[in-house]
Known about the structure:
By secondary structure, the chain is an all-beta fold. It has one domain (17-224): Immunoglobulin-like (Sandwich). It has 1 helix and 15 strands; from the N terminus they run ββββββββββββββαβ. Strands 2, 4, 7, 9, 10, 11, 12, 13 and 15 form a 9-stranded mixed sheet that branches. Strands 1, 3, 5, 6, 8 and 14 form a 6-stranded antiparallel sheet that branches. β9 (121-133) and β10 form a beta hairpin. The longest helix is centred in the last third of the chain and has 5 residues, at 206-210. The chain crosses the membrane at residues 206-224.
Amino acid sequence: MTGAPDDCGERPEKAQLKTELIGLPSKIVAGSGWQSFVYRATNTSNGELRSVVAFMDVWTWDGKDEAEDTGKYLSVEWYNVQKRSWQNLEFGDFAEAENLRPRQYVDARIRLKIDAKAPAGYGAAFQTGSYTGQDGTCGDAEGSIFYFDVLPVGSEPGKVDDAKGTTAKPGKARHADKPAARGSLSTLPVTGELARTGSSSGLPTVAALSGAAVAVGAGAVFVVRRRKANSAA
């Protein structure tokens, strides 16, 4: 998984970053098309964070045999605002936010779909992030796993709630340990800022996210790290 830089000056006792997934369905029917949700990283500290690196991994497995990885039926993409296009999300560190002020947050639009040939089973999305403060302090967000059921093609899922995050580890997981390779950068403006009470403005609508994000303060950007296929593990 991602981690704070090895040259950290100090690691705070309390994490200064909160990361979460918003809107990931708790049940997904195979062959039902794209399911959209949001990765959010929020600066919960009292100071500006110089860098916030986003991390995400998603996997699925067979309900009858948890040793059977069914990831070949899974597709995951994120929306590159600058290029105005959806791109494959390479699991691991996938983006970086810079100069994030207290209570500011950045969102990345993500979508996944499961092929109609996928067997019934389970899935999980793990998300976290690492950060570096202006004073050289750094650390990791607590991170959490969001579980969902994979239903066979043609199923009627009934009421579908959002998946809830938990720190409980799955019995079967694929680890995305490779670091992001340095390359050309794309940027996404900061999405918004939490109210003083700590509550957010809620999940942005797809229509709003498809346009220009609202920038609260200059300098906070989401920097996309492109990785090469042969990045070192």
